[in-house]
Amino acid sequence: MDTQFLCDFIDNLLANNGLKLKRAIGVGLFLFNKLRNKAPNYILDNLKELDKLSLEKKKAILKEVKKFLEEQKKNPQTKSILPREERKPIDLFFKSIDSVKILSKTEKKTLKALGIETVYDALFYFPEKYEDKRLNNWIKTAKVGEKVALKVRVQEVRKLNDGKYTFEVICSDGTGTLSLKYRYKNTSFAYRAFKRGLEIVVYGKLKSYKGEKYMVHPEVKTVNSEELGKILPVYYVRKKGELQEISSKTKQKRIRRALTALSSTLYKFFPEYLPDYLLEKYSFPDISLCIKELHSPEDISVKALNSFSDLYHKRVIYDELFTFQLALLLKKRELRKEKAPKINVDYEYIKNFIKDLPFNLTNAQERVINQILSDLSKETPMNRLLQGDVGSGKTIVAIITALAVVKSGFQVAVMVPTEILAHQHFKKFSELLKERGINVALLTGSLTPSQKRSVYRHTKEGNIHVLVGTHALIQEKVEFKKLGYVIIDEQHRFGVLQRKLLLEKGKGFYPHCLVMSATPIPRTLALAMYGDLEISIIDELPPGRKEVRTKLFFESEKEKVYEKIREELEKGNKVYVIYPLIEESEKLNLKAATEEYAKWQKLFPDKKVYLLHGKMPDKEKLKVMEEFKKEGDILVSTTVIEVGIDVPEATIMVIEDAHRFGLSQLHQLRGRVGRSDRKAYCYLIVPDELKKENNESLKRLRIFVKTTDGFKIAEEDLKLRGPGELIGVSQSGYFGFRIANLARSQDRALLTVARKDAEELIDNNPDLKGLDTLKKLILYKYGKKLDLSSVA
């Protein structure tokens, strides 16, 4: 590309107020062909349209092109993108970080401590925020409330005793005065460190009080520090791990050095993988430019970078969501090729069973049962997610559909995350199915070896029709004679691969699969997590279920709570008391639980108080729950009381330190009471210090008090705390998202767009022909996680 020639060409067109440009034809197309694969997409898009625009717009665009060309002249490497045919195959970037020669041993070790294993991982380990250390501000013009770097000269050091700060350093830059305020007890060093006339650069949040501009404990640098004059990336570092011994400044320096060296050397060789029509549709910059600009930004607004709203961020966030949705859709397509057992549903038999139930089904339950039965009678595997609010009656749907499968001669496996839940499901399934001659068995880790052997034998011989269990079900020893249906409760506690292991026990058939989610999941998140499943929703509660009244109390108002508890206990009702887990320490948790248990025993000496905590063996937990059901009054627990636990007499749920729980967790807990026709209450207790104005936790809890709609609560939780809260932290990592964050509304909007684009691409090009690089990237990221073996 002859940069100088193109600059002269544009100057010529712009001369005499654009006289030649006015008459010229085909300028846009000429420049477009010259700059194709070299200029960013937004420039190329404007050039394509140039000939149709007004003279003023043409002039503005050509000035922009000239600015780009001038930058090329200054530093030809800066913005240049290699033509696609000169770039490297993507497989090279999937190689181990150890294969990179430009990194030192220490740098490689640093990157590995961040979980970076390959060159691709490193290039896509983008900063979590940016600091603007460019020296383009003056005291007079710098905006209050923003973080700025200012070059100043020290005028004097003053001692302060206003109770807030111990000394201040008065500085100036010729346009105004700035005070640096400090809280150190020993102030003698200040006179040595801040000598009059010393030139320094300070970086911090600019504040103002009565016209005086000041910073509190700013970063102070010498004027020749290598950090200055640029936008500095700041990378996320896990709190625990190998790097925790090193100071955070040293950590950042090392990471920055390694990632900048790598990205600035390799970015131009990284191949473009998105189809051209999508790049054009959204005016996205080339992926190699995104890698370069996000690790070493130059002329981008720091505000845009930190809100992830610049075009480079938008592009990589879209890519993550798009490739994940493509992977899910490929998985969905792959499943359709599998052969499932065709269930001959005996509708008359099912109708009679429903008629004999001691309660009526809701319309929503009937609708969902019909959807599932219709799927079961086909030869393509059902893969359906069943969602419903707490207490909406998902278990009965599972029982009725399981009955249809057993009646047709196939076995059913029901997998749940905990032993308590397994026992409860076993009890419910047995109660309703044994009169129909259906054998239900239980398989958990705490069975004796001989009990387990018996279960294995009868399952293999087909004598057991419904097997309920924990992840013990996926062990190799478990063999089914004719597995036709797999029901998985509380999906997000199981990885996709665990689900796969169970589904592989179908012997020649691919069993139908129903996943039941106990937590209502907002539509966006359901799309992200379960894009490969069809979705059914039970959107009404059984008649007669009373709404749980929720109230917020401060510590100082606890006496009112105790009075209410006494009233309920006198009526023969039961009470749950929940304490949050303190993640840092198991010992502390145990101590807290035991102390609180003793406190409740003193408060209610004539009542039976039980204690349940996470460290108890499963057998003991079961024993406590059974005793509490039979004769207990108060259950004090540190664990979130198991989802699905059913004690109809429980009418009060007291949640201590409620501000430490996510809204969806609180909603689950609230769902443990009000499981009968008795009035039920949920009391949230929080410390008095939360009374301070505008407390975020209090705002969240007030949302919770007002609504009992689980879907609304889940939507709020997603906005406030991100997906990790709703689906378990490990699960949000499971998406493989490095930069997309569904707690941001802009990313949720992008997810919907990415899903639509992924569907269109799969519809038009199901085998991704001509998109080998994209295909390889999807397999690298999701091949194992989603078991996309046949896609390869």
What attributes does this structure have?
7-stranded parallel β-sheet, alpha/beta, 792 residues, 7-stranded mixed β-sheet, 30 helices
Describe the protein.
With 792 residues, the protein is α/β, with parallel strands linked by helices. The protein has 30 helices and 22 strands. The strands form four sheets. A seven-stranded mixed β-sheet has the order 6-7-4-3-2-5-8, with no helix packed on it. Helix 2 packs antiparallel against helix 3, helix 11 (287-295) packs across helix 13 (311-336) and helix 13 (311-336) packs across helix 30. The mean pLDDT is 87.
Give the arrangement of secondary structure elements.
Elements: H1 3-23, H2 27-35, H3 41-49, H4 55-74, H5 76-79, H6 105-113, H7 119-123, E1 129-132, E2 147-159, E3 167-172, E4 177-182, H8 188-193, E5 199-205, E6 207-209, E7 212-216, E8 219-222, E9 231-234, H9 248-266, H10 276-282, H11 287-295, H12 302-306, H13 311-336, H14 347-355, H15 363-376, E10 383-388, H16 394-407, E11 411-415, H17 419-433, E12 440-443, H18 449-461, E13 466-469, E14 483-489, H19 496-503, E15 512-517, H20 523-529, E16 534-538, E17 549-554, H21 558-570, E18 574-578, H22 586-603, E19 609-612, H23 618-631, E20 634-637, E21 650-656, H24 663-670, E22 681-686, H25 696-706, H26 710-721, H27 723-727, H28 729-734, H29 745-764, H30 772-782
Parallel strand pairs: 4-7, 10-15, 10-16, 11-13, 11-14, 12-13, 14-15, 17-22, 18-20, 18-21, 19-20, 21-22
Antiparallel strand pairs: 1-9, 2-3, 2-5, 3-4, 5-8, 6-7
